[in-house]
């Protein structure tokens, strides 16, 4: 789904949603926020959905073999070619973040930057695999998706938000199709990335583009995102751990995510005429200074 008109000298924002969501339920709150209009006025947006994840989708044929997450990432170059896009800034959440990260690893020339929310670079561990098999017997699909999307504290304390997403999953999503996408994500392999070491091997396989990792401090993905940060090039990676934020930062705090996006995009060298360079201070245990072509993060703990 393309909004806006691509321009030869500017990338397109390419989004990919998480399991149990689609582009609407994952990104609508963010992209309809008033502050986000400054960005979409200058950069077109292309929303990608995994097969069968749109609202009111029909069940995929029984003969259909659902693609692996690797295959989904390898389908993205064809999407760019179809729309005549030269490069993108990827914006992904959860499973979508993993897919975009793998896409950027395999096609670095097509990706100017990545914003990865709740990314998990690791394959499902043995204990997780056993736990998932047990929950297959004891939990419904909506229960498993809610546990994937939200932390326990949020499930207990933010009833309205969780109930809204539970209703969305059960009332608008095709359960069979979602289950197949969920299975593909749970069968993912570990991203083959390694942090370059000064004085050591600097030609290791890693993300080549500037990358912004985002996670709410109440998210079940915190540990995975911090682990991902430890594996990437520190000169090209910024970790945003958002204080007092739920599991879906783009839904819970869209204004702050939009502000971070503005400075990230400006750091890539775009939209310079729109935003004044300055120090961005967000109460998320991280100061970020953006300058043309670089990002520098200085972490601190709030007292």
Automatic annotation (TrEMBL):
<dbReference type="Pfam" id="PF03096">
    <property type="entry name" value="Ndr"/>
</dbReference>
<protein>
    <submittedName>
        <fullName>N-myc downstream regulated 1b</fullName>
    </submittedName>
</protein>
<dbReference type="InterPro" id="IPR004142">
    <property type="entry name" value="NDRG"/>
</dbReference>
<dbReference type="InterPro" id="IPR029058">
    <property type="entry name" value="AB_hydrolase_fold"/>
</dbReference>
<comment type="similarity">
    <text>Belongs to the NDRG family.</text>
</comment>
């Amino acid at each position: 789904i393309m909004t806006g008109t691509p321009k030869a000298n500017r990338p397109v924002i390419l989004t990919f949603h998480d399991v149990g969501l689609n582009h609407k339920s994952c990104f609508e709150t963010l992209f309809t926020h008033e502050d986000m209009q400054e960005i979409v006025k200058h950069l077109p947006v292309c929303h990608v959905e995994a097969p069968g994840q749109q609202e009111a989708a029909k069940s995929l044929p029984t003969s259909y073999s659902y693609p692996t997450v690797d295959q989904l990432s390898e389908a993205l170059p064809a999407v760019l070619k179809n729309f005549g896009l030269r490069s993108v800034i990827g914006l992904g959440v959860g499973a979508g973040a993993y897919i975009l990260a793998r896409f950027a690893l395999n096609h670095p020339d097509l990706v100017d930057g990545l914003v990865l929310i709740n990314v998990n670079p690791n394959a499902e561990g043995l204990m997780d695999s056993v736990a998932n098999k047990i929950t297959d017997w004891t939990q419904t699909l909506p229960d498993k998706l809610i546990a994937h999307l939200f932390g326990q504290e949020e499930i207990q304390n933010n009833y309205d938000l969780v109930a809204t997403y539970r209703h969305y999953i059960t009332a608008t999503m095709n359960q069979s199709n979602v289950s197949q996408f969920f299975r593909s994500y749970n069968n993912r392999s570990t991203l083959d990335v390694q942090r370059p070491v000064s004085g050591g091997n600097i030609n290791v396989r890693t993300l080549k583009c500037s990358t912004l990792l985002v996670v709410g401090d109440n998210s079940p993905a915190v540990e995975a995102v911090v682990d991902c940060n430890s594996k990437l090039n520190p000169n090209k990676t910024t970790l945003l751990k958002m204080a007092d934020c739920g599991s879906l930062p783009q839904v819970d705090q869209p204004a702050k995510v939009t502000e971070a996006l503005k400075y990230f995009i400006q750091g890539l060298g775009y939209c310079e005429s729109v935003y004044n360079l300055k120090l961005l201070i967000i109460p998320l245990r991280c100061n970020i200074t953006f300058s043309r072509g670089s990002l520098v993060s200085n972490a601190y703990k709030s007292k």
